[in-house]
Write a structure and sequence with these properties.
Strand order of the largest sheet: 1-21-18-17-16
Pfam families: TrAA12
Helix content: under 10%
Number of domains: 1
Shape: globular
Strand content: 25-35%
Number of strands: 28
Protein name: Sorbosone dehydrogenase
Number of helices: 2
Length: about 450
């Protein structure tokens, strides 16, 4: 009898292991990234996962003299090195560059989920504590290298976006939009930041961005979701997965657009001043879904998260259902590929990188942790028409690659992208702890 029981238990254990392996086994992509990019990506059937595919690029940094690889006709060199997890960039009117050296605030939650998240963040180079600092970089002699690197503001709370408006410098901390008076040419600010509006802080998506709106008197602030598909309840997502419009004088705000799982980079397209953003979409539907995207955003838009993706495809995992929203779920304008982690965005308004890069969007793709094979880990360019829309039939064009070596290890991971005062492109690399400068070959 005892042997029979042991055999049954052994069989049940084998079945349990097989079931676990079936759901936990890494899902391998069946499509090239390019097939899931552009205005008409190939949206295949979802492959739901109980445990996400985990494939990371081990961070190894850059050896002395190593750089990423620039596209033909371009060259790349270090603008600044020795930084502490640089994520976001902002150019001041005098040409000085601010860099937010920052990371996630301490992540709450214990147990298996908390442990897995901490391990994963460490494996991709994001486990370091936040420096909570904005640093000023100045290239006074114009040689393409910042000879001044000095703390500009300290004591912040996971700062990210920065923007000037009416003599005030606005900083998007993870939990609040704050401001300080700004004097052109200043190399240090010691004033205590003034609270403008509180924001929901932390969560899986902690970074908050801010840019001036086209009306010249309000600000757009992006706030990512706290979860993958609102699995912690919709109450935890209040004023999240959205772009907020803030009235800084009145210290009030409204939800400008919603259903955006993790909007990050925002910019106004030259000519029309229409708001665009890049968005990180959801996980655990397989290596081919869902594409991150670049899209125009208007007041009242809803892009479907968490119930729908890519303009109305149902995510059957989400409860409660919301069938009324489906017909109103807006389709994004341009897919960037699955799990590329598009974060940085700037338009080529004053870029001087040759004829190929005169009009369009530069996008920093931080790179996947949940796709096999890896995707992202580069800077791409999406060409635009004079009317301010992506060129029909176009695919993203590589601008800066080589962040991952032949063994699948990461020298760096690109995040924020801006142009400098000469028209070169600056790229924040938070694993390589550097700012790269991409310029046209002479």
């Amino acid at each position: 009898m005892r042997k029979h029981i042991l055999r049954v238990l052994a069989l049940l254990l084998v079945i349990a292991i097989a079931v676990f392996a079936w759901f936990a086994w890494p899902d391998k992509a069946r499509q090239d990234v390019a097939a899931v990019a552009g205005a008409r990506p190939d949206i295949t059937a979802p492959r739901e996962q109980v445990i996400p595919t985990v494939k990371t690029a081990k961070p190894i940094g850059w050896a002395q003299g190593q750089t990423p690889t620039a596209a033909a006709g371009l060259r790349v060199a270090a603008f600044a090195t020795g930084l502490d997890h640089p994520r976001w960039l902002y150019r001041l009117p005098n040409g000085d560059v601010l860099v937010a050296e920052t990371n996630s605030p301490p992540r709450k939650g214990g147990g298996i989920t908390g442990w897995v998240m901490r391990v994963l963040m460490g494996r991709v180079g994001a486990g370091v504590p936040s420096a909570n600092r904005i640093t000023l970089l100045r290239d006074a002699d114009g040689d393409g290298v910042a000879e001044l690197k000095t703390p500009f503001m300290t004591g912040l709370n996971s700062p990210f976006g920065m923007a000037l408006l009416d003599g005030q410098l606005y900083i998007a901390n993870t939990d609040a939009l704050v401001r300080v008076p700004y004097t052109e040419g200043a190399t240090k600010i010691t004033a205590k930041p003034e609270l403008v509006v509180k924001l929901p802080g932390g969560g899986n998506h902690w970074a908050r961005n801010v840019i001036p709106a086209e009306d010249g008197r309000t600000l757009y602030v992006s706030v990512g979701s706290s979860s993958n598909i609102a699995e912690n309840g919709l109450a935890a997502e209040r004023n999240r997965a959205a772009i907020l419009q803030v009235w800084p004088k009145e210290k009030t705000y409204r939800v400008f657009a919603a259903g955006l799982r993790n909007p990050n980079g925002m910019a106004l397209v030259p000519g029309t001043n229409r708001l665009w953003t890049v968005v990180n979409e959801r996980d655990m539907l397989g290596s081919d879904l869902v594409p991150d995207y670049l899209t125009a955003v208007e007041l009242g838009d809803h892009f479907g998260w968490p119930w729908y993706y890519w303009g109305g495809y149902v995510d059957n995992r989400v409860e409660p259902k919301n069938p009324e929203l489906q017909q109103y779920s807006k389709r994004p304008d341009y897919a960037l590929g699955p799990h590329v982690a598009a974060l940085g965005l700037t338009f080529a308004a004053d870029a001087r990188l040759g004829d190929r890069f005169v009009r369009g969007a530069f996008i920093g793709e931080h790179g996947s942790w949940n796709r096999s094979p890896l995707s992202g880990y580069k800077v791409v360019f999406v060409p635009f028409t004079p009317a301010g829309w992506p060129v029909a039939g176009s695919k993203p064009v590589d601008v800066l690659t080589g962040f991952v070596d032949a063994d699948g290890k990461a020298h760096g991971r690109p995040v924020g992208v801006i142009t400098d005062k000469t028209g070169a492109l600056l790229v924040a690399d938070d694993v390589g702890n550097a700012i790269w400068r991409v310029s046209a070959e002479k």
